[in-house]
Structure formats: structure tokens, C-alpha cells
Amino acid sequence: MRFLKCLPLLFALTQAKFVVQNWEITYVTTNRGLDQPPKRGVGVNNQFPLPVIRAELGDVLILNVHNSLDVPTSLHAHGIFQRETNYYDGVYMVTECGIAPGSNFTYEIPLEQSGTYWIHGHTAEQNYDGLQTPLIIYDPNDPYPVDQEYLFAVEDWWPITIQETLEILQEPGGLGSPFVYPPQTLINGEYGNLTQPMHFEPGKTYRIRLVSMMNLPLWEFALDDHEMYVIEVDGVLTKPKLVNVVRLSPGQRVSVLIKAKESIRRNYQYHVTVLDDYVPLIPGVYPAQFDGAVVYHPDAPVDIAQIIPSERFDEMSIESLDYEPVLVPDRSIFQNLTYGFTKDEIPSETINLISYRNSKVPSLLSALTTGDRALNPITYGPQTNTQVFKHNDVIEMLLWSPTQLPHPMHLHGHTFQIVETGYTNDTTGEFRRRVPSSDYSPLKRDTVHVPQGEYVVVRFRAYRGVWAYHCHFQIHSGLGLFQVFVVGPEELQQTVHIPESLIEQCRLRDVPVHGNAVGNNAYNYNGAPQLAYLDAELPPLAAKLAAAGVTP
């Protein structure tokens, strides 16, 4: 493995524009203006909300970070491929050691994609406590020109921290519920009821960017008596698709185009609705509805809709704008997204009944320093559930969600085609939906929602790197629904040059930078976190409650 003491991208970036952000990551004790007790959140420069980052295609985002927390931190640009800067992907103990308390680190991220993204913490689920903000990348040659745009970044703010939440959820018997401390909804950093108006002018075209920074619930956006066309999903441009409403799962982003009316004689409303699809009914929380004004003239009356639409986001009916035919898989894998319980009835979230735990060496550094052993998944530790793929192979994944909870699954460094959906209890194939096999460009996105009791089949072309793959319910990833994909380790060893600054962060925390999951230069992984045997059956009391239709 080769380390660089200079800027890794110096020569390639000499002509780029630098967008510089100076962030001190700090604790901020606040209730965010909500009617709930304050908690210790994780903010930037002692403030909430974090600043929205805006840049143009071809810019380089420079994030100068000082960690004022008493624990490590890191930042991930969600949806940005990081194809040649895998080491800046920001995933704790996967691509880096984390930024040590009291130290400085700089991310240098080439912005080679346009669209709607977001930046969030990727150490110990710190975005649950507020470390997150939208990232908007404009294309001067965007095929969908607009007159103006609006941004809706929606998040749930819980009155307890992620650590407190995970402790509750790991109570024996699977009965611990954080919903005794229910969250509230923030829109662009403010309580949902304070949402700001949109001002429309006759004949103009508006782009509405929707960013789901939620930790748990789904939400929907609708606008009364206007045509709304989807034109972007997770940073990927689509063919225009007329919709009544847009539903988003945590981690997802959608842009819609709306053409204003020609008259100023009436005003309208838009609606942000938080759903209770799979969470307990809590009046004013699940569900919750927040209405905002669409103003054509300050003195015009408001048309009040009698019915607000609500429906699934039909990914199978939307095509990507740039034509890419349905990929033909080189390899297919099955992923059972389910919970598991130890003999002591302690719950975990799992992929194929393996609950993720961090290695003692970042997986990227293991891939670069173990020679041909990097081809064997055991090198990264059994507790990482690592899959090793060949560079440029097409991977098909069957994502299977047999339990009472859905899973928004996010893959770093890639987008995947959504090619099939169905129900896990379907024995005849009657409800199987597949995209056409020819003359069709399936929707691509980086975060796919797998509903409870259903499955989704996705395909992607694997690109060299070490990539996290996980559920974007933060409580699920924190409980182990997380996996590592290592792609083309032979190519990585020939092409990747790790910045010295990243290695220095490992040294500050005495983290090994060579060897397998535990730092050994052999297959032996003694000392890796222990894998507990997990049973997929609910504990007796939880099973009785589930049979009665009661969600703990």
C-alpha cells in the first residue's frame, strides 16, 4: 500500500473550482424549537441546522473538519460515487479510522455527478442526532431548465440520543420501544408547522427538490391542483413521469417539475405527510400532516383540497433518462433482511442472520495490504459479512424482507437498476412485476425501499472499491443490518494511493493500518468480534403481541 503526503488529486484538480466548508463538529444541546426535552445533538460550528452545501458539476468539495466531540466522527457524501477517492467515502472502520477527538481532517471530494444528495455522519449513526445536511450539485447544461427551485429537507428529531435508543431496543425479549419518546418532524431545520410558503409566478417552471433525512418514517409530498413530474431520483435524471404524490423513504431524494398556472386569482397548498405505515399510531406524530402555502397573490383566496393523495412511489414505471438496458447478471446473491435473537433474547438486525460488527482494521486498508488474501471474504472478519466481487461484474441481489418492518437499503459508490418486485408469500408468481427485457431503461437509484413482506431485485455493475451497504433506518444499521462489499481488490492494490492524512488519523487512535480484520498478516482472525448464534424466531411474549397485531 502506498501513502501520499501531497494532495491526492493535485494534478487532476488544478482547473477545478473549490467549494470550501470549514466545519467544527460539536455537541449542541437543544430541542430544535420543539415541544420536547432538549438532548445533546451533534451539530456544526455549535449550530443547527447545518448549512446547505451548493456546488456545480466539476467542482471539488473541500470539507475541513475539526472534531470537537469526545468520540471519533466521519462524514459521508450520500450518493456521490467516490470512484477514485474511495478513501473519502467516510465510513467508520470501512474506509477510514474516523477523525480522532480534538484533531483535524480534510475531505477532498470531486463532484462528478449533478443532482440532489446529502452529507451526513457515518460514525455511530451520528446523523440520528443531527449531523446531516443537503448537498445540491447543479449542472449548467441541465436538460430540465427551470426558473426557480425550492428545497424540502425533512428529518425526524428524537428527544433521546442514538445510544439511548439502541439501549432501549436491545432490552431482552424484543419489547423495548423508543416510541415512548416520540420524535417530531423538521422541515428545512424548523418544526413542520412553521414550514415556509412557496411563491409562484404565472407561467414559470419550478423544481422542487425533496431530501429524506429521516431516521425512520416514510413521508409524502403533494401539491394541490398542479401537475407534478418526477425528473430526478437519487441524483439520476429520469424521463418525465406525471405523479400525484411523491413518497420517500430514509436516504432517498426526488426532484419534481411543476409548471405554474397562468392566473393569480387563487392560491393553493402543498402538503408534507409523515406516514404510519409500519410504526405505532401516535396522534400528531404518526401520521402527521404539515400544510404550506403556494402563493400567487397575497390577497387571493386559498383553494382547499378535500382529498390529499397518498400512494406508493412506483419505481417500476419510471425510466432513467440516459438509456441503459437491463443488465445481465454475472452473479446473483440472496439477502434475507431480518431480525435475529440471541439465546438471551437480545435482538439484532441482520443480513442472512449475520449482525455486522466493526473490524479492528478498516476494510479498505485490509484490501490493500493482504495481497491475494484480499480475495477471501474471511480476511475482513466473519462479523462484517463481506462479499468479494470482481471489478465490472454485474451483480444481482434479491432483497427479501419477510418481517413486519421494511428496509431502505443503500449501496455506497453505485446506483442499482430496479428490475423486479413481488411478495415473499407469493407461491404462484401472480404478483411478480418485472421491467421489460428490451427497449427499456430501468430506474436507477442508490437507496431502494423494500416493504415489509415483499422483495425487490436489483442489479448493478460493480466498481473497484470497498463499499458499505446497509439499511438507512439508523436504528437498524446500528443494530447490525450492514455489510461490506469489496470489489476488485487486485485492481485496488494497483491503483489506490491512500492519503497520509488518513493514515495519521489511524495512528492517533492506535488503529492498525495493515493486515486482516484484526491486523494479522495471515488468515487467522482470532480477536475479531464474536458472532453470536442468532435465531430468527420472535421471543415468546413478542410473538404473542405480534400475533395480536401489537407493535412493541
Descriptive key words:
mainly beta, seven-stranded mixed sheet
Q: Termini separation (Å)?
A: 49 Å
Helical segment count: 6
- Tell me the strand percentage band: 35-45%
Q: What would you call the shape?
A: globular
The neighbouring-strand order within the major sheet is: 12-11-10-14-19-16-17
How can the largest sheet be summarized?
A: 7 strands, mixed
Rg (CA only): 23 Å
Number of β-strand runs = 34
What is the share of helical residues? under 10%
Note poorly predicted spans.
2-13
State the secondary-structure class.
mainly beta
**Residue-averaged pLDDT:** 94
Quickly describe the structure.
With 552 residues, this protein is mainly beta. The protein has six helices and 34 strands. The model is unreliable at 2-13 (pLDDT under 50).
